[in-house]
Design a protein that fits this description.
Layout: H1 2-13, E1 17-24, E2 32-37, E3 43-48
Antiparallel strand pairs: 1-2, 2-3
């Protein structure tokens, strides 16, 4: 759940509008989420459901180059 909270803080700092949450809902046991809009108005949701997930232990999602750093700059804009 703290990952959802931390993500909400990060995307807000990056200019996203928090639409709803972070909050718990009864759609699934322990379902916790935040819904936000990026600066272009595209809605995205980050959620946590205890005991659920897409990745097996030790696997990763994409490569390090696929992610924005905390300071909001990607590796191609380092100068």
């Amino acid at each position: 759940m703290e990952d959802v909270d931390e993500t909400a803080i990060l995307v807000s700092k990056l200019g996203a509008k928090i639409v709803r949450g972070p909050e718990e809902r009864d759609w699934a046991p322990g379902y916790y989420y935040v819904l936000f809009e990026d600066p272009d108005g595209i809605r995205l949701e980050i959620n946590f459901i205890p005991g659920k997930g897409l990745l097996k232990k030790g696997e990763s999602f994409g490569s390090e180059d696929d992610y924005i750093r905390i300071d909001g700059k990607d590796k191609n804009n380092d100068g």
